[in-house]
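In response to reviewer comment 3 from the previous cycle, which asked for concrete evidence that the modeling workflow produces usable outputs, we include below a single protein chain processed end to end. The sequence was submitted unchanged, and the resulting structure tokens are shown without manual editing.
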Amino acid sequence: MTEPSIRKPLGVLLILTIVTVWTVAIVSLSPWIAHAPWPAQAVIYLVAGIVWIFPLGPVLRWMEAGR
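The workflow returned the following structure tokens.
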């Protein structure tokens, strides 16, 4: 029987931290974003809604493979 890995619980905590920090950052910028025209707001929030996914790749790889 193998020892359970601590990587998965730590990875979950890291993912939650990344999402929380990203959310706080975007929300703190929202007063300035609110003054932009609506098409610019749509682009900003669309990009912000996608960009947070990219740092998760290495975390997920580390959780599964340990690299």
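The helical segments are 7-33, 38-51, 56-65. We consider this sufficient to address the reviewer's concern, and the full set will be provided in the supplementary archive.
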